[in-house]
Predict the 3D structure of the following.
Amino acid sequence: MKMNLSSRRQLVEARIPVIRKAGDAALALQDDDVAVRAKQDGSSVASADLASNDILRAACLALFPAMPVVSEEDSLIFEARKDSEPVLVIDPLDGTKEFIKGRDEFAVNIALVEDGHASAGLIYAPARDRLFFSYGAGLAFE
C-alpha cells in the first residue's frame, strides 16, 4: 500500500511535535551522567537513545496504530517487520558517539518507508534546534 502525498504530509506534520519532544528529552540527558552500554553489535547505546526511542515509539503507534514501527534499538523487531509496507523507521539518536562526547552533532530521525525506499521523513538536531522534513519528491523543508 502506497500513501498519497496528502497522507504523507499529514503523517509528517503529526510527528513534528513528537520528534521535537524526543530530541529535547535526549538533549536534557546529555548534561547528566550519560549511562552507556554496548549493544550486541558492539555499538554504544546511551540512556538518551532509550528515552527518545520510548517517546517516538509510543507516539508513532498512538498516531497510526496499524503502521509498524521499526527502531534501530529493536533489531529483533526489525527482522520481523522489514518487509511490511508501509513502515515507520526510527533512529532515536543518530550520532550516539558524538552525544556521549558532549558534542552537538546528533539527530533524531523518522522515515516512512514504502516500496523499500524512504518516501517521507524528519530529521531533528535538538542541540542546534534545526528540523528538516520532507513528504515527497522535491518537497524538502526546514
Notes: The helical segments are 5-30, 47-63, 75-81, 96-100. The mean pLDDT is 85. Strands lie at 36-38, 44-46, 69-71, 87-94, 107-114, 117-125, 130-136, 139-141. The two ends are 28 Å apart (CA to CA).
